[in-house]
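Project standup — Tuesday

K.O.: blocked on the structure for the chain from last sprint. Re-posting the sequence here as requested.
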Amino acid sequence: MSTIEKILILSTILLFGFLTIFSYAYVDLNLTLSKSPLVISFVSRMQNFGYYHRTAATLTYSLFLTAAFTQFIITLYLIYRKKIGKKYLIASIIATTLISIFAYPYLSYDVFNYMFDAKILTVYHANPYTHKPLDFPSDDWLRFMRWIHRYSPYGPAWLLMSVVPSLLGLGKFVITLFNFKVLMAAFHLLNCLIIYKILFKLNPKNQMLGTSFYALNPLVLIEGVVNAHNDVVLATFILLPVYLLSNQKPLLSILANIIGTLVKYIPAISLPWLII
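H.V.: unblocked you, prediction finished:
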């Protein structure tokens, strides 16, 4: 790696390392992540900063966003100018993804709903389409959740995927949360690869730039990996049909689109285009 690539990697690690630490300022006040005195002390200090020093916390986060997007734009420019290469891109994708796995989902409660929907299946052996979290009033997780009055709004393909991290979580909240974060991170990495493959076929000149625009985008990393929205899974089943179609596999392309529709219903919009 060149000197500039090493500097950018170090900067990336510092930025997302900072974000991971900062994210614990917004751990729900009704949620206890660990019984360890060290963890409790750390989270309490961060919560005090996030919840009770809001002006300072907002300024801190604004500075982070400014720095992260500034580096993102500079990186895109350097890739466009061929100043940094594939090794940097791979290292940066891996670094940002791994670090983001350990961040608390500070901007969204959605992942908790994914976890509880799966728990209805794996622990309570009930149907998330006919049972809602509120139907299990003795469950401790309800203390820090939102939207506990709704049935699962997601497709059966997503529920099947969510069963795996739920079972591997062994009923433990933190382990299950980590498993869901790993699942989202895996799909994020898969998306990076699919975009890279699509551009190799359709626009090789901009293969690095196009992949970087998704893979290193702070918005994608924060919402997809840090906050663990299942839209990152949805993106896979929007990109995969395009990749399959570019490789002259129209039937598999349509099948991938149908599976995506069974995750979340948005991919159905592109089905007519794929058929045509």
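K.O.: great, moving the ticket to review. The radius of gyration is 20 Å. The mean pLDDT is 93.
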